[in-house]
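Format is sequence with structure; example below:
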Amino acid sequence: MKKERVQNSKPLSLIKEIEQAAEVLAPIWPLTNFVAVNPLWDLRDLGFHGAIRYARQYLGIDGYLPESLADLAIKQSRLISKDIDEATIEANILAEQYQKEIEPLEMVLPSQLIDHIHGTQLSTMIEEEMAKWCASFLTASDKNAENGFYDYWRRHVVIDPAARKIVGKKEHKSLGAFGETPLIAITKALEDLKAPQELHIQLFRLTLTRLLGWAGHAKWRSQWADPSHPGPKLYLDSLLAVGLVYEAVVANALKTTEITSVKTNASCPPLTHEPKRKRATTKDNSNRSGWEALSQLSPDRQSAVILRAYENHYRDELLTIIESKSSCESSSEFSNEPTTASVQAIFCIDVRSEGIRRQLEATDIAGEIETYGFAGFFGIPANFAAFGESTPIPLSPVLLQPTISSYEVPNQDNGSSLKRRMAISEVERASYSAFERTRHGATSAYVLAEATGVAAGAIAIARTISPRGYASIRSFARGQRSGPISTHIEIGDRNESFTIDEQVNMAENTLRAIGLIGNFAPIVLVCGHGSSTENNAFFSAFHCGACGGNRGANSARIFATILNTSDVRTGLTGRGIAIPDSTIFIAGEHDTSIDLVTLLDTQNATLTHKSEIESLKQALIQAGEKLAQERVRSLPGAPAGGGTAHVARRASDWAQITPEWGLARNAAMIIGPRSTTAGLDLNRRTFLHSYNASIDPDGTLLTAILTAPMVVAHWINAQYYFSSVDAATFSAGDKVAHNVVGDTGVILGAGGDLMVGLTRQSLFDQDMAYHEPMRLLTLVEAPIERIEQVIDANQILQQLFNGAWVHLVARENKDSRWMIRSTARQWYPWQNSPEHDEKA
């Protein structure tokens, strides 16, 4: 949930101006809780195309498919005439997004004007200095940084000789003379620059976007982070204050002390950031249907048509697969007949779950298995404290605020292992703290390197020669130190209880959302997911987005614990959801890098369901092996015929830059019964959310799905999209050149801006694009009228669907035609084409 940092000392007007200026920034979460986000989310009311035009002024982005990818798609018949024809019609509907007036950029920074006139590089020098101070502040001790970034910079910059190269010796000390707080400094800088009120927001935005990464981190800290989040606090006002002070001092030193509009200052450099496109994709197709009309459009509209055609082609292939191949419907899904399933498994909607669900359903070891999809926090927004950890972590999408507390507590049967574990944990924490202090010390770091160099070298050799062997030895050593520890989950704040009624409410909402309200199997598996990788700064990007970038195992454990509570089951029975005493909920976690599903907290379950659990374990192993064989075919450098051994080695290899593909190639979200897609190979590209429209007459459940899980899926999809099409702006670049800045993020090389978005190795196989950049396609199986009612009642859905951020296709049931929704709120029937029939 977005948070606002309140400081009563700030004039409200200035706060609002800073917030408006930051709308073009994407918030950047720390590495330990990486969150994929639409980088233009705060511009969503402009529509997809309008937001790109507006952001281009400040960020220089293109926003559309690179020409090379579009050309390749045409050569491979990934784009055909039918796609272009339909997309051209749709582009005309969206014409207002291209023609609508957007606020033009009317100014440049003083340093940019000076550079343009005198051929200097002051602007670049200021950016480098600001980046240097950001990195220094974020890795400073808490005591040294306790008064914030502006205070830290102000105290140190006046003794920094590098600043003299920018402002000169005479003006050096004046950098620290703009007041004691960011607010005072901003106000004085505006006065010195004689900035007119109407240009404040543009001035602020230009100042912040020169360091898109550090400003993105500051936006996260200012608007999204919990106030208690540890570490130095870099806020937007402090970063803005530092940037404006540099500009004011430089302008004063060179007697350029007035901010003016380009309309009144002919000396200003050009402000346009037009994309460098020729759209040669049309030259060899001018005699083909659709292409001639396309060539008459502006470059932006050509790009929009080609993008939509590219997306429509995938949509048609997906719908053709669903329509033409018989689905393997479960005989008991959403039925009143007794279930024949031995296991029902609830997985996260993550696209990687599509593969494990499909493979698990195809096994016959554990009898019939039904699978369901729900966001990986399973409807329980919780703060979770692991055993031995004092700081809880949030297990929920960032759009939600955790409302309950949960704890991992050791069981009573641990004996001496528990005491050894606690003692070893204390020693490990103290040792790690001392190691980090020494490693970051100005001189002690060199002593540490000398003292540990031989041992570190031996470990490095072992990790390189035999990654799996080293990982096995390390795991064995950890286990030998303390012995196995069994734990369980306790739910509810230790001072304020999480009532049974509240637990019943949350459990009911989740079960009804996926349509599992009766016919329970003997075992219900609740399966979260996480990813095991080595030497990977972006490890949390592979974890569960619905769990706030954390592993999903504990969310599964929390939900299973609630559903196994007798009082909760009694409450559910009173609401029409009767769970038999013979049914047990078991938590599990799918490790997506090695395709292994581990069952958790099975101590009590083995007393009553021992044989069933053993069969389930074997089915999960078989499904994982099949999925590993499937995945290795697309992994860079994987040997032909590789499987579980290869993915296990890959996950433990500290030199591996692509341990797995994550959510690359994500393209669609399907909201409906599993019978719509069961038995179909969707290539791990679809978010699958279970939904039964027949038990949701007023659209309450559909509203919850579209406004939360679908928005999260859109954020993920948009992050992958923009990281692919505008890698220079929205991608974190090459992992090989990364340097990690504490827990904050990464920079390329020795310094500079914090990198934004996903790494190149998450998107490309060397120079070939692996991810196909497309906006999210959402398929819903529900009455059209109900869907429109839900959209009409929610502004965010109106912005996403009417603004062309997300495409929507729906049908009422399996006997109905698929209908496509235009941005003009009109529905028209989907028409298949022979080209797609041949591929089905």
